[in-house]
Write the structure tokens for this entry.
Amino acid sequence: MKQLEFKPKSKVREFLGEKLIALNAYAALIAILLIFVFIFKEAVPIFTDASVQEEASLDKLINKQEYYEGREAKWSWQPNSEVPKFSLYPLVIGTIKAALVAMLFAIPLGVGAAVYSSEFAPKRMREIIKPAIELLAAIPSVVLGFFALMVLATFLQNVLGLTFRLNALNAGIALGLAVIPVVFTVAEDAMTSVPQSLRNAAIALGANPWQISLTMVLPAAVPGISAGVVLGFGRAVGETMIVLMASGNAAIISASFLDSVRTFSATIAAELAEVVFGGTHYTVLFFIGSLLFVFTFLINLAGDIVLARLKTRLQGKPS
Amino acid sequence: MTIGEPRSSSATASLQFARKTTGAIPRTLTLVAVVLILAILAVLLGSIVLGGIGTVSWEFISQPPEQGMEAGGIFPAIFGTVALVLLMVIAVVPVGVLVAIYLQEYTRPDSPSTRLIRVAINNLAGVPSIVFGLFGLGFFIAFVGGGIDSVFFPEDGPVWGQPAIIWAALTLALLTLPVVIVSTEEALRTIPREIKDASLALGGTKLQTIWRIIIPQAMPGILTGSILAISRGAGEVAPIMFTGAAYYLPYLPGKLTDQFMELGYHIYVMATQSPDVEATKPILFGTVLVLIILTLALNSVAIIIRSRMRKGRVHA
């Protein structure tokens, strides 16, 4: 028996190897923590530093301000003007407007295509749809932004007779193109994970294919589809290059989707290169980054939880 | 509960007719969604190919820009992109593969530490790319680079503590880490249990089994993950805008601390900040076409390897 045992030297190597691999695995965990720490660290002066607070305290970021004496109080994002104005409100409006258009565009197309692909499509058609969606997902966002800037904006302007070439509608549609693959993939996955036994039971009760889809598969997959929509919304809010290139980037407060908008992500991208390291403007941009990070983090967490529960319920085991 | 009377045959027929016609509505509506997506994709790719095909030539991809970007080629941007993603792959693949091995081979799938790591990976994949850019600036350039400078080069100006190709590559490596992990894990799951058992039964240690059996078997998955990561990294602009990309450089990057030109960033700057967009339009479309061919070709290769791997599993 003696010669079948491992040598002690090899045991040490095994131990070290395992510990190194384990240590490395926590790299992903540490990376997330580091991102947290380093984004938040640069945003902290908003709460602690008096000189930063003078221009950009929480009150000034959120509430209306009377920037010039005697003039009406308003929300305004003009970080480089003589009186720097750091109201986040116009950016919130812009972010929501662009993301809203994107979702209105992407939900019907993404969910519709997912229902077709999972429920109605002949096999050959499915072999076209899935690679097409993968293709769309693989297109770099700077290319989608370029398309919106050069082609889509001109088209929309000619058709609708718009004053502003670059606006929330234009950016939102291009953003929708980036969101469709997210919605499609998650929704389709949710529907195909409905077990065959449920479908068979419905067939045995005399249901038609479309009855199975609409009365059984869809209701069972609704949590998955909504998770896809939520994850898509997270993508729409975080996406940068498309809105930076296609939205016009004017921080306007208005209800019209045909006005230019400036989003959170585009503001960081457009302004970070020109700010003073550690200055007020720099701090506010990192604060916006923190908001984006927290927001997408929560959305992804919610999406993950919903999907995991759905899988457990449909298949009786955690995925 | 009583069983209803059997329906008359004409009632059954009309019911079936009603079922068929109403069944056509959801089918048609969802088909319209598919057709719309395909049409948009066709218009998108078509307009780029038509706009760029006249510009792309050997000279275009092998020459540097001239006359303030209004003439010449895009060789430095291609070179910078390739150098960037190579550095990124060197950083991300070993880490990603080891994380996947740890998750698949060393831990139970439902243990708290596995779940925690999985949640972290999923969330890493969902962090907006611009936030990675902020992180690259705050962590790699200011903290790591600035730290190196203050220890080793206190007298000189910033050497490491400034935008550079190494920091951009590391930022992208972090961004593409989930891609490599997910793809490698999928490959690890396809390796039959018997092969590992056979290796262990022959006296191989766990580490030897991983090194000699598991990693070679998982190679297609690792390759797929690497290619997808390259394709993703080559297309991302937001994370590199502040961490190392430059609009124009008269030289190619030769050191880790050099800045670099990059295709995606080149497109962004030319499209939004060029004084004469009409004059640069052909070059712009050509650059987009080159970038899109690059990323889509990489993706197709990855998809082919992956589908072969999946078929292999079915036959095994």
Observations:
- The two ends of chain B are 52 Å apart (CA to CA).
